[in-house]
Amino acid sequence: MTMKTKEEIFTGVKLPGIPMLIFNLLFLIAVCWVFVPIVRGVFGTNQMALLIILDVVLLIVNTIFWCGFMKNDPNEARVMVFFGKYEGTIKENGYFWVNPFYAKKPLILRARNLDAEPIKVNDKSGNPIMIGQVVVWRVKDTYKALFDIDSESKSSVSQQQQLGSAKAFVQDKMKAYEYFVKVQSDAALRYVAGMYAYDNMEGTDEKLTLRSGGDDLNDILENQLNERLALAGIEILEARINYLAYAPEIAAVMLRRQQADAIISAREKIVEGAVGMVKHALEKLAADNVIELDDQKKAAMVSNLLVVLCSEENAQPIINSGTLYN
What domains appear along the chain, each with residue ranges and CATH number? Predict the structure, then answer.
């Protein structure tokens, strides 16, 4: 038989738990009933010895049967291992009885959050930036999660005594998976951040930047995480960048640069609007025959209007008592 290398549904004997519980109780009562003639000494020595051996064997079998019961809550799974051989995974909810010699390893399939602290990385342009992410993940392939990565974690004896071996086993596994997801998430985030610039610098026109990427950048990050975590049987449900800023050592310089860009952009908009208004004024004067202006007068008017429209402070009118030419 070929060894299983991926998750499969358990196809072995899996009986309803309640009927088997009733059967095992009746079995225990029958074992006790067989013990009654032994106490009374009804049979001879040879028969008594045979009854004692039979009763001990039945008691051992009944005790072993009690080890076959298991309970599966919603979004939980049991990985069935028979003397080191993977036999399948039970994801069905309920109370069951299986072969007592199966090792029933529990795993949690519920979604979990990872709110990673911002890390310092270099973007495509080499600028140091701080970037953080939020990841929603869950265990998808129980075989890979349990057997393809080293997910062993050391637990204290007191913790195992307080929580029980099964619960401590699950918590140890999930802590190991959380650490694995954290390490791979940091690696994926560094890789994605290094592929793109923080923002469009002067003379560059990047189609996608960290600042303007939005959903497209989140999709790229999610794909990177899924590729890295597929080995562990972990699925990424959502990944998004939740923090983005320049590193402290260059934040002040970049802030001044952004302020300068904003001022220049605003000035360009003001000048563009002022030129349009001056052009409209000259065309309106000419169309309505209000006044005829030669080139020198038009230049003076344009100069005055641009000063008034582009000035940051209110213009102070000056009354000219002479003429434009004197």
Answer: 14-106 (no CATH), 112-246 (3.30.479.30), 253-310 (no CATH)
